[in-house]
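Question: Send over one sample?
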Amino acid sequence: MRGFIITGTSSGIGHELCKLLLENPNYRVIGIGRTQNIKHTNYHHFALDLNNISEIGNIVFPEWTNAEQISLIQNAGWIGPIQKIGNQELGAISSAYIINLVAPAVLSNQFIKMYKSSKAQKVILSISSGAAHTAIGVGVHTVLQKQD
């Protein structure tokens, strides 16, 4: 059995990745997102907003004692309003940092804490976007992305 914990499963890449993984009867998937759009016997959903750190801290990952691999796939992200720096609201800047930087750090910490003694192979994959390349109006998001 392989277990997957995926953020951003309400739509887009995260949603489609869940559906693809659930085609394998030996895979178990935990989805994290604001809305549940997937119904499957091997799927469990945590309905929450990654902008709310206290909610993230309440997630309890499954034990999955018989797993050969457990993966955390951090797909959720938020670009925020498309505005030049200097024109952005404090709340939007704060949300961008929480969703794109703080939430993945908190989830990674919880994942490692939960599975550190597990014999399963552990994988943390963080998906970024093309917005890491300089673009007018996405300054806050660009700062949060890996630069090569």
